[in-house]
Amino acid sequence: MMGPLTRSVGVALLTLALAATAACSDDAETSDSSLATTVGGDTAETPTITIVTYSSYVLDEAVQAKVENDLGVKLEISATGDGAEALTAAILTAGRPEGDIFFGVDNTLLSRAVAGNLFVPLDPADVPNLAEIPEELLLDESGQLVPIDVGPVCVDYDQQWFAERGLEPPSSLQDLTDPKYRDLLVVQSPVTSTPGLVFLMATHALLGDDADAFWQGLVDNGVSVAGSWDDAWYSQYTVSGGDRPLVVSYASSPPAEVFYSEGAVTTPRSAVIESTCADQVEFAGVLDGSEHVDKATEVINAMLDIAWQESLPLTNFVYPARPDAAEPDLFTQFAPRPAASIVLDPAEIEERRDEWIDDWRSIVE
């Protein structure tokens, strides 16, 4: 059902990759990625712009055809594992990339990605659609990465399970440590899962110095820790036949429940505890060493066009970065964008991520 939502991450891999970058040779040859075509008797080149990303990324076919026609390019997707694996591979090939654009850096790894010397700075004049993006999403002060979408990570709950037992679902993060919700919550490990990492960062952003005590409270209250979103949702969540009616997932999980049922479900069992939501923002940038920097920049701008933005909810189950992009009925009915989300500061995350993960391990593992 929710394959496009899976965002597993190996933080340790990224750390090793950054260390290895300095040892990588910059002398490797870059292969020619252009296709020769004939137009009006003249030979012209139609450049292939390769988007390097994670394996669950989906590009709408109609949008792809429009962009290829409008810009005179061919788009290809080069997908590698999860988001962290794709980013790790890109860091290891910094300066001699396997594509032209990287998509999938999120705000929990933003500073680390920028430090990897992967991207070329973008002139805002070359990305005019950037003017349509809210200032709060423009998190990369270096100007290398452009926000494309937002996927709020939240605690979701099984409405049917709680209704059948006459139990009110929790309404806040702190409620999750209440004994009446003992053994009901499953979260993902921040070491191996992006939603798990976002959720950990959100607890520190909201609770500050009390975050460790909160996690100890979750442990005392029987929290289950899954290795991935798939394990948490498909194996442990009650909607999928498990025994945990509270799960860390996404604000878009309820409409995805309906969409992937192919008509079998018209109303989702899942709902979102909005006060627990934290925005996971995903970014794209032009890879340093691309043979087609100008065309790749045009594609980045196209990713912020209305057509591309409006395709995102039902292809990748995220919210468009552009506030003027219309959202489908499934989203407006079952997943209105959270009115307020917990703010994650990329600079603070970069400074304290490893410390917080170490603290989490000492409490939970």
Topology, element by element:
Layout: H1 11-21, E1 34-39, E2 42-53, H2 61-71, E3 74-79, H3 83-92, E4 101-106, H4 110-115, E5 146-158, H5 159-164, E6 185-188, H6 194-207, H7 211-220, E7 224-226, H8 229-236, E8 246-250, H9 253-259, E9 270-286, H10 293-303, H11 306-316, E10 319-320, H12 329-334, H13 346-364
Parallel strand pairs: 2-3, 2-4, 6-7, 6-8
Antiparallel strand pairs: 1-2, 4-9, 5-8, 5-9, 5-10
Helix pairs in contact: 1-3, 7-13
Write structural notes for this entry.
With 365 residues, this protein is α/β, with parallel strands linked by helices. It has helices spanning 11-21, 61-71, 83-92, 110-115, 159-164, 194-207, 211-220, 229-236, 253-259, 293-303, 306-316, 329-334, 346-364; strands spanning 34-39, 42-53, 74-79, 101-106, 146-158, 185-188, 224-226, 246-250, 270-286, 319-320. The chain folds into two domains: 3-150 and 280-326, D-Maltodextrin-Binding Protein, domain 2; 152-278 and 341-364, D-Maltodextrin-Binding Protein, domain 2 (3-Layer(aba) Sandwich). The protein is built from 13 helices and ten strands. It is globular. The two termini are 30 Å apart. 47% of the residues are buried.
What are the main properties of this structure?
single chain, 365 residues, alpha/beta, D-Maltodextrin-Binding Protein, domain 2, 2 domains, 20% strand
Total strand segments: 10
The largest sheet, given as strand count, sense and whether it forms a barrel, is: 10 strands, mixed
* CATH fold-level name of the largest domain: D-Maltodextrin-Binding Protein, domain 2
**SS strand fraction:** 15-25%
Quaternary status of these chains? single chain
- Number of helical segments with 4 or more residues: 13
User: How many separate structural domains?
Assistant: 2
CATH superfamily of the largest domain: Periplasmic binding protein-like II
Global structural class: alpha/beta
CATH architecture of the largest domain: 3-Layer(aba) Sandwich
Distance between the termini: 30 Å
The whole-number mean of residue pLDDT values reads 88
